[in-house]
Amino acid sequence: MTKTIQKQIHSKNLPYASLRGYLEVELKNAARIESSLGFSKRALNRADSKYDPEPFVYIDGGSEQEINKTLRPILNDWITKYLKPFAEKEEVSTKIIERLEELQDKNDLLKITPLKSQVLPWIWSQETGTTQHRNQYDYRVLADYVARQIAGQEIFQGLGPMKRIISSNGTFTSGRAELITDPRSLKDTKGKFSLVLRLEVITFPSLHQPLLKVDISKRRWLTQLKSPRYNSHDNGPQEDILVGKDLKAKKRSGERLKAWEPIAKQIKERNTRP
Questions:
Q1: How far apart are CA 196 and CA 97, in angstroms?
Q2: What does DSSP say about strands 211-221 and 240-241: parallel, antiparallel, or unpaired?
Q3: Would the pTM count as exceeding 0.85?
Q4: In sequence order, which ranges of the chain are alpha helices (DSSP H)?
């Protein structure tokens, strides 16, 4: 259905960033969210292949009924406030949107599949002694399990509890997970920073079980878009920059932050309704 819409609008992507914003805020037990939600042109072009579409969200726990109950108002809001105005502007056939709403009413718009995987121990080769994963999910399941144990805990003294980054390019199908502290300021220093804990599941020859690699970095938050450099006089250690490597990337990120404001307002209004 979404592929049919995509064909009618040709060069543009569907407005999936707004839906991703809803999911990031509303899905309290989401472990991973794929950035394009399977709506990018590249992902939709694969719909004609013999392979099933890749999942776009992994959720920790919950029954199919509970998940559908959470997702239903999210999808209703997104279709009404974002997809339908977009389709009208792009002159997409109303019959397609009506069919989409019909599938939503019947709870046939999404397919929710339980995923079972064993965190530890892993099996290993009798010949080499090297550990082996049972399926394609084992790496990410182990990384997510460890991330769940850390989330909500204060790892860095005085910086508050760690929070999971659930939507990030390049980590959706990998054995990596990231957690971050709230932004903090330092005296006599411009801007704010967060500490990032990056987890990665790796294997080595002859080791019976996987290893967990832990990296720590400092991530700086941009406060303005006037200059492509941040604190150029600061000669401290190399750091991550939160958004982009150039001014164009920073501007795109600024637009995404602005887009969050109406989404957050709508969610707040919906949650306060009697």
A1: 41
A2: parallel
A3: no
A4: 2-9, 16-26, 41-45, 64-78, 84-89, 94-105, 138-150, 247-271
